[in-house]
Write a structure and sequence with these properties.
This protein has 258 residues and is mainly beta. It is 0% helix and 45% strand. The two termini are 34 Å apart.
Length: 258
C-alpha cells in the first residue's frame, strides 16, 4: 500500500499542552524528577533517578500505521546540567514497550522497537541525536544525527515516519522547517507508546541534563488501499483531482461457461 502525506493543518490525533498529567504514567525511581508543572512536562536526568520517565499508550492499532508525525518543543536548562565523563542520555519518542533500562550503564532486558530523539550530555559535549532500531542497547549514537545543542534555547523537534523511513529534525524555527535532519531506515512493527526516559552511563562519573518539553502533537494517517475487493455494483467513485464521478457497473458474467 502507498504511504500518504501528513496534513498538519488537520486536528492532531494526540495533543498535550501539559495543563495536567492525565495522559501520562510516570515512573520515578527517586524523587519526582519527571513531572508535569507550570504547563509543561519537566525532567531532570540524574543517576539517582536512572530508569525513570513517562509513557502514554497510543493503542494497539497504532503499531500498524506506516505514516505519522510527532512534534514537540524542547528546552534544555543550563541550571540542571552537569558535564562529566559519563553520558547522560534522555529520550523522547515512541517505543514498542513501556519498559525502562535495566540499570546504570545497561540497556533493556529484551529488545524493543525504538524511534526517538535523545539528548546526550557528557564531558565537554552536548548533543541531540537519534535512535531508530529494534534493539536492547541504550547509548550515545553519533550517526546519522549528531547536532550540538545550546542550553537555554527553544528547539522544535520532529519525528516523521513514512513506511520504513524515519526522518528526525531539530530546529529553532517554530514552523518546524530548516534546522538539522537525518534519515533512519528500519522495519518496526511494535511502536505503540509515547516514551520518555532518562539513562546514565556511569554512577562514578555522573553527567546530568534537564529541562522541559511542551506542545506535543501527533498526527497519523491510515494506509491507503491500492486494490478494492467485494465492491457492490452501482458503487460511485470520485476522482478527486479531476472531480469526475464514476459508477461501477459490476462484472457481466453472462455467456461464461465452466
Amino acid at each position: 500500500s502507498s504511504v500518504p502525506a501528513i496534513d498538519t493543518s488537520a486536528t492532531p490525533d494526540f495533543s498535550d499542552v501539559f495543563t495536567n498529567d492525565d495522559n501520562w504514567t510516570f515512573t520515578n525511581t527517586s524523587g519526582t524528577y519527571w513531572n508535569v508543572g507550570s504547563n509543561r512536562l519537566n525532567w531532570e536526568n540524574r543517576i539517582a533517578n536512572n530508569a525513570s520517565g513517562a509513557n502514554h499508550d497510543l493503542g494497539t492499532s497504532f503499531a500498524s500505521k506506516k505514516s505519522w508525525l510527532l512534534r514537540f518543543e524542547l528546552y534544555i536548562e543550563s541550571s540542571k546540567e552537569v558535564q562529566f565523563n559519563g553520558d547522560a542520555v534522555t529520550m523522547f519518542g515512541i517505543h514498542g514497550s513501556t519498559a525502562f533500562n535495566s540499570g546504570v550503564g545497561s540497556g533493556y532486558s529484551s529488545a524493543q522497537d525504538q524511534a526517538h530523539i535523545q539528548i546526550a550530555t557528557a564531558n565537554s559535549t552536548r548533543y541531540v541525536q537519534g535512535r531508530v532500531c529494534d534493539c536492547t542497547t541504550v547509548q550515545q549514537l553519533q550517526t546519522p544525527l549528531n547536532f550540538t545543542y545550546s542550553n537555554n534555547t527553544q528547539y522544535y523537534c520532529e519525528i516523521k515516519r513514512s513506511g520504513n523511513t524515519y526522518t528526525l529534525r531539530i530546529t529553532t524555527n517554530s514552523d518546524y522547517t530548516g534546522g538539522t535532519t537525518a534519515e533512519f531506515t528500519a522495519s518496526l512493527t511494535e511502536l505503540r507508546y509515547l516514551h520518555l526516559e532518562s539513562w546514565g552511563q556511569n554512577s562514578s562519573y555522573e553527567s546530568r541534563n534537564g529541562g522541559y518539553i511542551d506542545n506535543m502533537k501527533l498526527w497519523t494517517k491510515a494506509d491507503e488501499k491500492t486494490t478494492l475487493t467485494n465492491v457492490p455494483a452501482n458503487t460511485r467513485y470520485e476522482e478527486t483531482d479531476t472531480r469526475t464521478i464514476w459508477r461501477y457497473g459490476g462484472i457481466n458474467t453472462s455467456g461464461l461457461k465452466a
